Amino acid sequence: MMPNRKHTSRKQRKNTGMLFNAEIAGSERLRALILISLLGLEAVLLIIIYFFYRTEYISLFNTHIAIYAILIFTLIMILYESSVHYFIGKEMALFSHHRSAFGYLNSFSEITLLTILFIFIVEYSEQTVILQSPAPLTYFLFIVLSTLRLNFRLSAFSGGLAAVEYVAVSIYYSTVFSDIPVDRFHPDLTGMQYLGQGVILLISGIAAGFVADLIKKKMLTSLASINEKNEVIDLFGQQISPQIADSILEKKDELTGTRKYVCVMFLDIRNFTPFVEKHTPEEVVTYLNNLFSFMIDSVQRYDGVINQFLGDGFMATFGAPVSKGNIPKKAVLAAVEIIERVRQANTAGNIPKTTIGIGLHYGEAVIGNIGSSVRKQYSITGNVVIIASRIEQLNKLWHSQLIISQEVFNEIDANVKSMFVPQKPAKIKGINRPVLLYIFNEEIEISKIRKQ
Q: Is the same domain home to 222 and 245?
């Protein structure tokens, strides 16, 4: 079993990795759209502020270069982020393969473009007031959104790069313009104050990294859970309902092999061979699909699993892989519902005249996955399967549609027991002792059964 588990583990990790890469690509594209929106909003708001405070603005900069530069920067960033969004959508595989390198390059480009903006404004205005204004807070926009990359190092890198560039530019230009009177750039900031702001940028990047790391762990856990559910769906196909699939995930150890008490149902469609001989293959398939559609629905309604289709019938199991409530009672109610729905379909003329035979037996079975790493099947093995099959065959002899064993009868409620008529002990092939069996009384009103 170990090689199979290792293969499954590798497959699960690969699937989880693919899902994670897809999520990161989506997050990076979303990040680009958010930046486009926020930078556009920032430009609009700055224009509004400039309109109301033009006098104060001129007194600080003595030129309109700052507002023009900010608007040009915003346009450049919008074009840049638009190209990032387009590139990731167009080259998803390339992005996933070089995701880390792309993240560092993108962070460096965004933060450095902002720093170049500040350098440009300082150079042309010959004042460092832009470095003391709210404008450097734009660094935090890139730092906060770096969490969407779900990479601690990238967030810390963004914060560290912003801190280094801001501090370096601020200290350099405060030294270059140290001979300019203080009232020309209100207020003056010392190197210590610039360093303090740089430390805040760095700490912000580290904090964003911790948030990104936490989100990443939660996302990987969620993706692993989704992958496990997909594996269950792959394993069981359409045999089980979504509710049972969720329950299997809670007790997935049982898939590797265990003993459990189950109720096995064998169902057979009577006179199927003569029907096949008189009808086309297409008509046969349509007939079976019409029958099995509501039969499967009844089985799943009572938490059963269709293990095998047998051409003119099927084998179903109640109590494995999920055990809920009175298992034999659920199997009995599912069987009775199937009989009633066949009767209704016959009466309505939706199917050719059809009768069925169902056998139920309750006992211990060995359940689990059998096969190789390439192909597995969830199997139920043991005498309970053989006996259920032999009981079903007795329907032909007794001209009945549902027979249950003594083991099933002993487990059901008294009001459900009243639906059955005991028979004389019968001999079943493969069992040395006679067994006590019960036939369903088909004359009972179905409305009474549905109240059980």
A: no
